[in-house]
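Handout, section 4.2: multi-component inputs.
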Amino acid sequence: MSNAWPLVRALRDPASVRGLDGAGWTNLVSMARAESLIGSLAHRLKEEDVPARVRPVLDDAIAAHQLARQQALWEADCTRRALAGYSGKVVLMKGTAYVAVDLDAGIGRSIGDLDIMVAREDLKQVEHMLLDAGWEWVKPDPYDDQYYREHMHELPPLIHRDRDRMIDVHHTTLPLTARPTPDARAMLDAAVQLETGQYVMAPADMVLHAVAHLVADGDLAGGLRNLWDIDQLIREFAKGDEAFWVSVEERAKAHGLAPHLARALRLAARLYGTPVSQSVAGVGQFSDWIHERRLLARDGWGRETRKLTRLIFYIRSHWLRMPPLMLARHLFVKWRKGQGAA
Amino acid sequence: MNPLQETHLAIGPARFRIALAWKQPLELLKRLYADYPDPDDGFADFTVRLEPDKPWRRFIRPSVHISGDFWLPDAAPLPLEQGLLAAEMGMNLQMALGWRRHLLLHASTVEKDGRALIMTGLSGSGKSTLSAMLGERGWRFMGDEFALLCPDTGQIYAFPRLVSLKNSAIAAMQKELPDDRFGPLLKATPKGDIRHLKPAAEAIANMHEPARPALLLFPRFGYEPAIRKMGQSEIFVRLTQASTNYVALGEAGFRALTEFVDQVPARAIDYQSGAEAEEIINRLWDELAS
Amino acid sequence: MSQQYKLRTGETLIEHVLDSMTAVFQASSGITHLVTDPVPAILEVLSDQFVDSDQVAERLQRQFDLQADADVAAVVAARLEELWQLGLVERRTAP
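Output:
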């Protein structure tokens, strides 16, 4: 049980589960839960003949994600009502967007917080409308608050006092300090309106937002799920739209995300067998292999493995998000707070 | 990374894989759960992980971090001597956050003649102690933590893991039962002193037998003996609060719970001693349980 | 300019009477609402078309044989606005 390959293989090729014994299934389920992919896996295995002991586990996952889907749409509707008097675009992001448009990427996807994007100049107004409608600040810490406002790509998270659900209000897709700075204005302009009056990103932007999350934004924690999003989005968008690859490539250049897109495509093709445009994905690099190892760092007990690679990625992820001086300041304040708490 | 050692437990309808970084709590678990059916096919519904919270905590002042398939971000670690409690909390956590095949009520349950008595209340209400006591007095012990209400049939299923006796209940049960029924005394845990008790052989042998809910009690320990009728809305609200997965089950949970409230007579009872409680329970059982 | 209300399109509400209150399970949110009179009667009136608070009050007065009373209209108007905030009903400005 050295890495998460059995999970990747089961998502890619459901028939691969046929040889699993009891222990193999238990490992697979633990890995899938740890990577927040159990719902997607359960849907992929719907037609497979699985052991009687496993079927209820998968059925539970399907039911749990049905509820997640419903709650996500409900939260979106709650913001629709709260922001009924706001004239700008409210763009649903990530999982909520996938289920709002009924994309394959939304099937069985776990959805936690609601993420929405609005124009940067409207943040204050949106913030006040949400506070009026029952959302409250989560973090009472003034340093964190200041940090969020100055450097991040979202308001400090808000939580609804009755429903206990969080909302992240973004004004761009990556922290302002991150090296690539996707063009938020262009994303808003291209957004597509839903029947409810809210918006989702246009297909190319939606893919690039998922890419930004995977490669530029995080330490690749939960990366297999992000990569699965990318795989599913690309399969659906590229099918029957010959212009998709051209538009996503152009758009990636405009957002400064071309190398990130290329890397994500190579990883998706390597792990999930995603059909990608060779010219957009470019040639493989040695560092792809390190990324792949990091993505697969999960053992059969559901533990993250390869601590060292993880640490390298964590530091790297902070460097990507913040210029070095700011990073030092951030770590120093965090350290002092840690001391104070000890 | 250190490999973990594992043991598998089947408790009622749920199966757990308990993976640990240490041998000692593993041996203890195996001994105390020796009479339970042995799931030897490797399948598990949940994995519980008990590991050091920092690598050196495996050896130096070893402390157990509880995690698994379902976990809470702020779970405090326990000292290694309390490994048994950690395993129990880990299993409870998986059930509370992950189980969907029944509506979970945070309650203890005992059964007689195919009918179930369900006792729910805040911690300190004595529901666990009462179920342990009744389990030695002609009732079948079905569980001291969760009552599993089946949304399809309305029946209660058992989850009879080790009883976790707390504080004064420990001495009371020690007087009645042989030493080999008990685990080690765990002193000064976050929940006070705890000693685990193996349920009676019959409770383990019949753990797959459901029972029809016949009486619901809300016991409260430490008050003048009293019996109080309750309105359906109050019962409903308190049961939604006592359920860990009411919201997660959606419409099925709503239907199961409203039907339960319609059909099962309920009372709040106050008592000051086990004997008092037993007397009240027997009286209400004869009067109300059909 | 009056507001009109109606149950959300495609919404399923399951009601269950519990002595003094009614538990209402709302399928689209998964939320259980506990409501008292006259809310169940109001929901009943709102089931098929947009109506304003005066129309709801009038229907309730007929149904329960109440005296025409400004209080009823005020109570109904307040409950309707709460129901909208909870997401149980849709609201629009009367055309």
